[in-house]
Amino acid sequence: MRNNIGVIGHPINHSLSPVFQQAALDYLGNNNVFEKWDIHPEKLEEKIKSFRNESFIALCVTLPHKQNVIPLIDELSDSAKAIGAVNWIYNKNNKLVGDNTDSTGFIRSLSERYKFVIKDKSALVFGAGGAARAIIYGLIQSKISRIVVSNRNFEKAKFISNELSNSKIKIEPIIFDRDSLANYAPYADIIINTTSLGMSGGPAPMASPISSDLISSNTFGYDIVYSPTITPFIKQFENSGAKYGTGLSMLLYQGVEGIEKALNVKAPVNVMQKALDAL
Ligand code: ATR
Question: What is the mean pLDDT of residues 61-71?
């Protein structure tokens, strides 16, 4: 099997990346096969070593390896450093360089796909895990003016808020209950779910962190959960007559950014989108 480009995770069968990345490679006339490697955490170091060769191009990294690859590679981009997670590794002059395109992918899906302008807006973010870090970092880079974070474990909301706040923006942690949300949610320009609530196969597949009565029709909703496409969270936005974006767009655009940086080309976004739509 070739060892040039692909995705690594455990498990990996569910990964949609090979589908739309292969479509991109084919369109670009690149002869490589976008591989899928199921690598147990104990075998991660050995596998990463195997990419230290000239023909290696790039690697998309998914759960549970996004943090564990960091000590095994040579350099990190600013976003990977700030977020503390890597979802792409590129071969740059025989060095393994880690990058995080989850944040830029999220931002590009908002601006390019949904024409949502983030600058000077206010956001309510549900969740305080690794995915929330990428989203919050992206919002800050895009000059949002206010961020409120709500998480079941309030200590984690406080921690992430402190850590990602800077001189320009002070992130506000709030309690994850109805009364607290009622003071913020109806006034937010965008509400983003980064928790696993509503994810099929997750801990609470039928649940949404917010109900439609707290959602204004002027608020944009975005769920990073993409299975199912229309999550319980998104249904609350539909019920409120609000606009929304679905997580498949973030998945697509993290891959668009990744392949563009890996190959130094413009990615065929429409071709990749079509491959995803055909699933
Ligand atoms: P990831 O790195 O993908 O963000 P994670 O670190 O496990 O994953 O975070 C999952 C998020 O979903 C957390 O914010 C978690 O809240 P807690 O910090 O309170 O655990 C949230 N989450 C998971 N199940 C939840 C539930 N039943 N109700 C509310 N929030 C939940």
Answer: 97
Convert the pLDDT of each residue in 223-239 to its tens digit: 999 999 999 999 999 99
Regarding the beta carbon of 197 and ligand 1, being less than 6 Å apart is answered yes
The CATH number covering residue 169 comes to: 3.40.50.720
Counts of helices then strands in the chain (DSSP H, E): 10, 12
Q: Residue 216: name the closest of 197, 190, 194 by CA.
A: 190
Task: Judge whether residue 252 has pLDDT over 70.
Answer: yes
Q: Give nearest CA residue, ligand 1 atom 7.
A: 129
Residue 2 has a pLDDT of: 77
- Residues with a catalytic annotation lie at 66
Which structural domain, as residue segments, surrounds residue 72?
Answer: 5-100
Q: Is the distance from the beta carbon of residue 63 to the nearest atom of ligand 1 less than 6 Å?
A: no
pLDDT of residue 1: 60
Q: Are 195 and 211 in contact (CB under 8 A)?
A: no
For the Cβ of 153 lying below 6 angstroms from any atom of ligand 1, the answer is yes
Q: What is the count of structural domains for the chain?
A: 2
Dihedral sign, Cα of residue 85, residue 88, residue 90, residue 96: positive
Specify whether 146 is located in the same domain as 85. no
Q: How far is the CA of 178 from the centre of ligand 1 (A)?
A: 18
